[in-house]
Structure formats: C-alpha cells, structure tokens
Design goal:
- There is one protein chain.
- By secondary structure, this protein is an alpha/beta fold.
- The protein is 44% helix and 16% strand.
- The strands form 2 sheets. It has a 6-stranded mixed sheet, sandwiched between helices. It has a two-stranded parallel ribbon with strand order 1-8.
- Helix 2 packs parallel to helix 3 and helix 4 crosses helix 5.
- The longest helix is centred in the C-terminal third of the chain and has 18 residues.
Length: 242
C-alpha cells in the first residue's frame, strides 16, 4: 500500500491486488522472499511486467525497461534486443537499450561487440530511421566511451567478415558483432523469430533488463524447455545482481 499510496491505493485495494499471482510474486521478489520471478506461460506480457514497473521499478540511472533474447546457435550465442517490450524507441532510449544489453551480455560471460542495426551501413544512408540509430550510437559512446559499439549497420555487415571488409573495413565490430540492437520492435521481433525458425536456434527470452531485480516473461506458447531455460537465466541474473 505504501508503494502506491500516491495513486490513492488504500488497504483494501492493496489486499485485493495481492490476490493476483503476478503482484504476489513480484512482491515476494521485492521483499527478498524470492530471488526472481518467471511468469507469462498463462498470462500476457503486460500482466507479467506491469507489477514490476509499479513495485520493483527501474535501476538508478535507467529510464527504460527493455529485453533481450539469447539466440543459441551451434557455434555461438548472439544477443538480440529489444524484441519484446518497446515498439518504437527514440535515440536516447535506443542508446539505453544498448547499454543495458551490454551489461546483460557480460552477466553471461559474453564479451559484447554491439551492432546498432539499420537498413544502411556507415555514413551513406539518410532518413529519419537511420538518423535515429546514428544519434543513439553517439549518445551511447558519449556516456560509455569504453564500449565497442558501432552503427548504423546492416545485419550482413555485422555478421559477415567479407561484407564487413567491404562496407566497414576499419571496424572492430563489423563482421564479429554478438550483440544486435534493432531499431524498433517490429524489426526485432520478426528477426528473432525468423532466425529461430530457419536456423533451428534456441531462443531464450525475453530476458528483461533495467529492473532492480529479475523478473522475466514467457510466451504463452512456451515449452517446458523454454520455462527451464528462463528459470536458469533468472537465477544467474539474481546471483549477478546480489
């Protein structure tokens, strides 16, 4: 009740709210009775994450909650974001998503090389969409000059060394990127599903980032393996953040 008193929540309203499993689970995490929460197998994404926004809230210095998928291929693991939460992030939000994705990748012992994706590579492209990505790269670099982050970049230039040599020959990211930040939800969500279905990759996620404590969402079409994988990832998050 105290957490939401400014919204006019009284004791009876708070009591009724806690009968909802998502609010009850989130409150257990908030009060340290649980290390993390995984939900969504029978609930919508909004039903899972809304209590986290209201109770757990974002980390200091973070204004946006976003997500990543870990795409487990035969020979490597790639990190895709944001593929589940933010429909059309602006340049500042896109930069924050990239910075959060770097922290998440490091949590799982991935040394991040970040490609900020667009329909154009380097300086050649023009237009509102590609300019947004260019601005996001500048913002992220200014705040975190130590990051290996480049863009705008097309996906082929990000993953294919021969294409990278042609399009961005002096890049330390192009051709070897392992963290991919998509310009909008439409692009990210469709890309991760296309890669998952066409390559047989195991997609683990969405793993939420930016919250003070781990809360993760499942698809309502999830399998038992999806649930187990997400629980394991949540446990690692909780250990890293404690």
């Amino acid at each position: 009740m105290l957490l939401r008193k400014e919204k006019g929540i009284n004791y009876d309203m708070a009591y009724d709210t806690m009968s909802d499993v998502s609010y009850f689970g989130t409150m257990m995490v908030h009060l340290n009775h649980a290390d993390g929460m995984v939900s969504g197998a029978v609930h919508t994404t909004q039903h899972t994450i809304r209590p986290a926004f209201q109770i757990i809230k974002t980390k200091p210095g973070t204004s946006i909650v976003s997500s990543v998928f870990f795409m487990c291929l035969e020979d490597r693991v790639l990190v895709y974001g944001d593929c589940a939460i933010n429909p059309d992030p602006d340049a500042q939000q896109l930069a924050e998503i990239a910075v959060s994705a770097v922290a998440t990748a490091k949590m799982y012992n991935i040394s991040p090389r970040v490609a900020m994706l667009s329909y154009s590579t380097g300086k050649s492209g023009k237009g509102k969409a590609v300019d947004k990505v260019r601005q996001a790269v500048a913002i992220a670099r200014k705040a975190h000059p130590e990051l290996k982050i480049e863009g705008p970049m097309q996906y082929d230039a990000a993953v294919d060394a021969s294409v990278a040599r042609t399009k961005l020959p002096d890049s330390e990211v192009a051709g070897q990127a392992n963290v991919f930040i998509f310009p909008d939800l439409n692009t990210g969500n469709n890309t991760y599903k296309a890669v998952q279905r066409s390559s047989g990759a195991v997609a683990i996620g969405p793993i939420l980032q930016g919250l003070n404590k781990p809360v993760n969402d499942l698809s309502r079409g999830c399998t038992v393996t999806d649930i187990v994988n997400t629980v394991v990832m949540t446990a690692i998050q909780s250990q890293s953040e404690n």
